[in-house]
Task: inverse folding
């Protein structure tokens, strides 16, 4: 899907050593997510003409913990946070008014990513692709609050990751 733009900022310098190819991986994940979801007809707010923009911040546990506490009331780090503009009451109007659709922000914490990948004994790049896929789906309106929503979101994640040659992260 050529009409998407991923803006990456790096808050934690160790990302360059831990996952030097994060840029190309991120682009590949985003393209795969959007291609898959658009093939399902699940992006009802996008007509294919306006570009969509996502902000991705590669951060650390300390910064993610601050955001998690401020916005979710949880004083601990987490692997990925998503702030979806689709949740804003003005989103539909903004889609009409502006030249591009700003989907929102994704923040990934390096230390938590590393711990979880190590614990699961999977490549860091595979876990990164999973977390980015998860975050992008949130920005597109997917959620996992209800069991049925969670099952659907997870099934989409598994199918998207399969297209990226990544094993099902929900096995085991």
Result:
């Amino acid at each position: 899907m050529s009409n998407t733009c991923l803006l990456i900022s790096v808050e934690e310098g160790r990302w360059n050593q831990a996952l030097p190819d994060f840029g190309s991986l991120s682009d590949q994940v985003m393209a795969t997510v959007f291609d898959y979801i658009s093939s399902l007809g699940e992006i009802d707010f996008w007509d294919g003409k306006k570009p969509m923009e996502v902000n991705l911040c590669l951060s650390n546990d300390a910064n993610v913990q601050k955001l998690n506490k401020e916005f979710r009331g949880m004083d601990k780090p987490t692997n990925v946070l998503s702030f979806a503009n689709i949740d804003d009451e003005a989103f539909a109007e903004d889609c009409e008014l502006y030249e591009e659709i700003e989907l929102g922000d994704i923040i990934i914490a390096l230390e938590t990513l590393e711990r979880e990948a190590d614990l699961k004994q999977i490549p860091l790049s595979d876990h990164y692709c999973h977390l980015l896929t998860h975050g992008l789906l949130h920005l597109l309106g997917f959620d996992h609050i209800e069991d049925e929503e969670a099952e659907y979101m997870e099934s989409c994640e598994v199918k998207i990751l399969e297209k990226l040659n990544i094993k099902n992260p929900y096995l085991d």
Q: What stands out?
A: The helical segments are 15-18, 22-39, 61-72, 91-97, 110-120, 124-139, 147-163. The first helix runs from residue 15 to 18. The longest strand covers residues 101-109. The domain at 4-163 is CATH 3.40.390.30 (Collagenase (Catalytic Domain)).
